[in-house]
Known about the structure:
The protein is α+β, with helices and mostly antiparallel strands and 199 residues long.
Amino acid sequence: xxxxxQVLQLIVAAADPISLDILAASTGKTKREIVKMxxxxxxxxxxxxxxxxxxxLGTGARGIYLPTExxxxxxxxxxxxxxxxxxxxxxxRTVGLRERAWWHFRAHSVATIKDLLSTHxxxxxxxxxxxxxxxxxxxEAVGILKRLPMKQPAKQSKGRVVWSLAKDLGPxxxxxxxxxxxxxxxxxxxxxxxxxEGE
Length: 199
């Protein structure tokens, strides 16, 4: 088993968010080496690195690591984390937050809004959480994403909703057309109408 996979398992097994110091002490590796591994895990969407004030913890949490739903699922498998292997990727260059979120769903199958924001938002997006949430809800409404019955635990709420990829349409991210109330698939050209409640 690779050391990066072992670090992921340590993060998943921890009862509380785990620190860089504890990971270094547990593995016998330097902090620099651990940071390199955690960056790999973050790129794959397996962990969240808290480097600012985080409502989930209520404190400044630089160097604190939390597993994502995808990380928890992957830690229990026999899969290995190899350099350069990040799962199926879209062929087109991903530039926007929604495009990066779509790549995340195709690569890891499941995610929460928190996972997507902490992994892919860079701080320059306007109203990133609201924008991404509305897009996810639109994809859910047409059956591209599916809301799972279980929720990801969260200290200050009843739990975060977890969505899974129900239809992999292809590399290009679905486009939510708010005014037309449709979702457009640029891969096939198909348009999915968003039905109103009761229809």
